[in-house]
Queue: 2 jobs
Job 1
Amino acid sequence: MKRILALAFTLILCASLNTLQAQVKILFDDTKNQTSGSADWVIDADVTKYAVPQLPTPSQTTVTSKTTDTFWTGALSSWGIDCVNKGYHVESLPSSGKITYGSKTNAQDLSNYKVYIIDEPNTKFTATEKTAILNFVKNGGGLFIISDHAGSDRNNDGSDSPTVWDDLFTNNGTVSNPFGIRFDTTNPNGKTYPSDITEVSTNLTKLTNPIIKGTYGTVTKLSFSRGTTMVLDTVANNTVKGVVFSKQSTGITSGAMVAYAKYGKGKIVAIGDSSPMDDGTGFTNTGLYKSYSGDSKVADNHRYLCMNATIWLATTDTVLPINFVNVTGTNSNNSTTIQWQVNGSVNEQSNYEVERSIDGNNFSTVTDVKAAKNVNNALSNYEFSTKESITSTVYYRIKAIDNGAITYSKVVSITPSQATSKINIFPNPISSNTNSSFTVAELTAGSLLTITNLQGVKYFEQKVTSPSITLNTNNVGGKKLLNGVYIVTVKSLLNNTSSVSRLVVGK
């Protein structure tokens, strides 16, 4: 009987361990003085600071949909409870813990987790810790970056959270600005500290994204209570996008309150204020305010944002079941038109982003197009047009998105249209004597140059690769040009427009 009971216990233990290993594991950091001063940026403040792993108490196995935000004591406890109800396993990395990646001796090595949340760090990361964090994201991890206003130095060591984060971005010994973000240190409001913004913003991007419109809820506004904004660098990271901007911001790369990006196989989400995560619970000596849910100004918007972001960070991207059948691009009369045809099953949450590039490598989003619902793998056609006068080749591609899963189309190149161009031929008229040469100039690469006689007999045809072509009348496509009139045509291969001129050959 004892052997049977022991075997049963072993099977139950193995099943429990397998279930835990299969769960998405989320790690909340507490190594960077997150409870200094009036802060309490942990999921449970009453646990021992030295337990490894640090688990909130009471046990998360007893959490239900009816569990209140006072179940655990910590400003992030409601967020942690929502994660558990989502099916995730949550832990804290205690002040005595180590930030490592790939260490077999560290029970809380980052390789054991899918999402790493660092709320308002007040001590700079060491060189080893920076490498670990970058490798974590690069290899598929999700990093939630939370800052606060400049001057929020809780432990008085000379470094506030914007400084700590910017130091990681710019001084990591590996890559400059890997995520394409930098916390702003300007002074838009003239407050005591730079980047000290208090406002409720409804300045949200119009592009569909998993942070604003995610599976947990739709975000319509965001409240900052003394927070900082970000400057986005799409050259450093061409995937970075802002989703909420300060009311003062009129662009897409400055004044970002929330942003997200990809790096390697992983993802990051960044926000410039810790207030939205605050559920108002914590030690009695901390200055906490309820904002995570039930906020008087924004209701549950902060909860939706935090959980949408967490879910996106925890989700491994998969390839969408969408095939791009055809993608074309044309430019005519200072207007660019992109058309694409797809088949595959998509739903109403899917969308397409039209991306543009001037070098064929670094793309930025031009617009967002909502996908038409298609569950029968039928062909669907889409079109986007914009006013655009181009003088050199530009490149476009389409990105299909569905709950974080992405598929790209091929890249199409567009050269300037020849529709309104005049063909410059000189000299014209030209002698038919041997070795007389003429030049067709002001050509656009990618067009087709054709020379025929008045009867339509083709003498010459060649795809243009340079601004001008020089020919000898004695050998034009293997034929000699006799006295007479010839038709010179330049045709755009992109939009089928043509320019026509005459070449006169005489004695």
Note: The chain has three domains: 25-314, 322-414, 424-506.
Job 2
Amino acid sequence: MKIVSNLLEQIEGIQIYYIIGLLIFVTLFVVIFIRTMRKPNKEMDEIKKSILIENGSEELIEPNN
């Protein structure tokens, strides 16, 4: 791993790729967070219920207590 880090340190302007990658990650994270928070509660409830529906039927799977 030391060989790779030494090689990358010698390349001029390589830091810009780290900055661009970090900006893309942060931007994507913020967009997904905002879209999730803006979803209506009704739609979120449908998503939660769809996880409990077995094989496309409308029967909900009841958890065993």
Note: Residues 2-39 form one domain.
